Amino acid sequence: MPQRTATVVGGGIGGLAAAIALHRRGWHVEVLERAPRFTEIGAGISLWPNALRALEVLGLEDAVRAAGALDAAGGVRDRRGRWLSRTDNAELERRFGRPLVVLHRAELLRVLAGALPADSLRPGSEVTAVRDDGHGPVVEHRGGVSRPDLVVGADGLRSAVRRALWPDAAGPRYAGYTAWRAVTEPLTERPTQGAAIWGRGERFGYTLLPGGRMYCFGTASLPAGTACAPSEYDELLRRFGSWPDPVPALLAAVRPDAVLRHDLYELPPLPSFVHGRVALLGDAAHAMTPNLGQGACQALEDAVTLAHCLDGTPDPAAALRSYDLLRRPRTRAVARRSARLGTLGQLAWPPAALLRDTAARLTPVRVTLRSMTPVLGWTAPSGPVTATKNETP
């Protein structure tokens, strides 16, 4: 049987993971990335136990864990710095088999890209058109035209693949708040655990990275496109500079030119993740808010599930239908849960914020961890391909 071919549009976390999963099953894969190189800048990423299980399937869990850092614990604090809830990483590992690992996105991209043949990575290959000519998918890009057996659209929130083949689908929807992200310079003294601090219409979080650095993020409820002057760093200082320790020290360790800011968007549910022999994956299929730290985790799940479904049948279109049945209900539920948590975290009315904080303080840790089981307890599919309703958390 001739070697099957796949074109992956988008060289981010989900796209590279899908390419690895297919490559290791004997597919000839090309990854088209519009940027001049395969990398990401400026931010950390949390990989929860479900993501690490997906990386195990790809044979990369050990390499990723070696590149990351482990918090001793984490949790939520209020605006005065008092702990509302705390979670021990060792307990997380005991319950779910793996800890929470945090690393820089660029490091994760390095590990993923390094697992593919160099000639399958095609930077500077912006996709200009995707269509079905009646015989199968056709992808036009800066390097030419590809006619693969399978196309994976992993090109993010504003996916060109989705726009081309799902022209009537609703576009991204603003979540109502913006986010700043930054990585500190190495610190001689730093916290041993991370936290998210809930204010009123604002949040600030921090977690450990390798090399003595910390990953920091802040959110604020603002209209989309609001300009911050004179700089994003100054806006961070204005909003969060007087927040509880260690926030002031962390901000002092951030280079002013190292602050990234992005308005946060989510993707309304699609009627399907597949169109013939084209599948959407990651943010292109189900972009969600980052409140659960599950965006990349779900993309990794997508990648290994897609490859598993393709193992079950020589017909890619039939395999993609199974993929859709498995992934769409689950990712929709995770996205809804993340949106709800964001709504709680951004509460600005003082009585509502007080009620939220009180409820968080009174909720036992075991209840919080148990509530996360449908998300973190995911395991990679094995055996015959089936899709059942209990895939939805």
Topology:
Blueprint: E1 5-9, H1 13-23, E2 28-33, E3 44-47, H2 49-57, H3 61-67, E4 73-78, E5 83-88, H4 89-96, E6 101-104, H5 105-113, E7 121-123, E8 127-132, E9 137-141, E10 144-146, E11 150-153, H6 160-165, E12 173-183, E13 195-198, E14 202-208, E15 214-220, H7 232-240, H8 247-252, E16 260-266, E17 274-275, E18 278-280, H9 283-286, H10 295-311, H11 316-345, H12 350-362, H13 365-371, H14 373-376
Helix pairs in contact: 1-5, 1-10, 2-3, 2-10, 10-11
Mean pLDDT: 94
* Number of continuous helical runs: 14
Distance between the termini: 39 Å
Shape: globular
Let me know the number of strands.
18
Strand coverage percent:
15-25%
* Biggest beta-sheet profile: 7 strands, mixed
Q: What's the level 1 CATH class of the domain at 5-73 and 101-172 and 268-345 and 364-391?
A: Alpha Beta
- The CATH topology of the domain at 5-73 and 101-172 and 268-345 and 364-391 corresponds to FAD/NAD(P)-binding domain
Structural class: alpha/beta
Question: What is the architecture of the domain at 5-73 and 101-172 and 268-345 and 364-391 at the second tier of CATH?
Answer: 3-Layer(bba) Sandwich
Catalogue the unreliable spans. Answer: 388-393
Q: Which value, in Å, is the CA radius of gyration? A: 21 Å
CATH H level of the domain at 5-73 and 101-172 and 268-345 and 364-391: which superfamily? Answer: FAD/NAD(P)-binding domain
